Amino acid sequence: MKKRYPIGIQSFEKLRKENYLYVDKTELVYELATTGSYYFLSRPRRFGKSMLISTLEAYFLGQKELFEGLAMVELEKEWITYPVLHLDLNAEKYDRPESLYNILNDTLAKWERLYGTEPSEVSLSLRFRGIVGRAHEKTGQQVVILVDEYDKPMLQAINNPELQEDFRNTLKAFYGVLKSMDRSIRFALLTGVTKFGKVSVFSDLNNLKDISMDDRYAQICGLTEKEIHHYLEPELHLLAEKCGVTYEEVCRDLKDNYDGYHFVENSVGMYNPFSILNTFDSMKFGNYWFETGTPTYLVELLKRSDFYLPDLDRIETDADTLNSIDSMSYDPVSVIYQSGYLTIKGYDSRFGMFRLGFPNTEVREGFVKYLIPFYTSVSKEKSAFHIMHFIREIESGDYDSFFRRLQSFLADIPYDLHADATERHYQNILFIVCKLLGCYVQAEYHSSYGRADMVLKTDKFIYVMEFKLNGSVDAALKQIEEKKYALPYESDGRKIFRIGVNFDTTQHNILEWKAEE
Question: Which of 143, 343, 369, 500 can pair with 473 through a Cys bridge, CB separation 3.0 to 4.6 Å?
Answer without folding.
Answer: 500
